[in-house]
Amino acid sequence: MIKLSFMELLSKLGIDWRLLVWQIVNFGIVLLVLKKFALGPVMRALDERAKKLEQGLRDAEEAKTVKVAAESEREKILAAARNESGRIVAEARKEAEVLREELHSRAKKEVDGLLLTGKNALKAEKELMLGEAKSELGLLVVEAVGKVLSRALTKEDEESLLVAAARELKTKL
User: Fold this and answer.
1) CA Rg value for the chain
2) Which of 47, 68, 107, 162 has its CA 20 to 30 A from that of 28?
3) What is the pLDDT of residues 46-84, one digit of tens each?
4) What is 97-150 written as a DSSP string?
């Protein structure tokens, strides 16, 4: 086995150790400068971006929660409105039915009143007509009986019969 020193190995590979040291120093300086001036702002920008993304996700989750709550509230309000409108419609129907019954009752009472008034008027008219007819009939009967009796009875018999017939007619009327 061949033992080579580090320096020999570098020279066999064509690497100059002094240039390598300067390159390492330069790389360290560039790394420090980048870290101080470029990496800090970039990292801050990345951190800010990450925070904004996290905040956006939290806001989106919160908005989703608010939306779900609003939907739930909307459904409750709609259900309450449906119930209220159903109650109002049922109440209106009930009131309409009560009003219809009341109007029907009033109309029936009016019709019954008109019928009773008409019947009473007809009855009164009938009684008046019957009274007039009886009076006229009584007078006609008295006159007819008088004519018939005047031919067959004496004047005294005739008068007593006429008076009796007139009295009887008056009691029946």
Assistant:
1) 66
2) 47
3) 999 999 999 999 999 999 999 999 999 999 999 999 999
4) HHHHHHHHHHHHHHHHHHHHHHHHHHHHHHHHHHHHHHHHHHHHHHHHHHHHHH
Tell me if the pTM is above 0.70.
no
Distance CA 63, CA 69 (A): 10
Please give the Cα distance from 70 to 85 (Å, whole number).
22
CA–CA distance, 44 with 35 (Å, rounded to integer): 12
Closest CA to 142 of 123, 114, 161, 122: 161
CA distances to 39, 141, 142, 169 from 153, rounded to whole Å, are 163, 16, 14, 21
Q: Provide the pLDDT confidence category of residue 151 given band limits of 50, 70 and 90.
A: low
d(CA 120, CA 128): 12
Separation of alpha carbons 83 and 90, rounded Å = 10
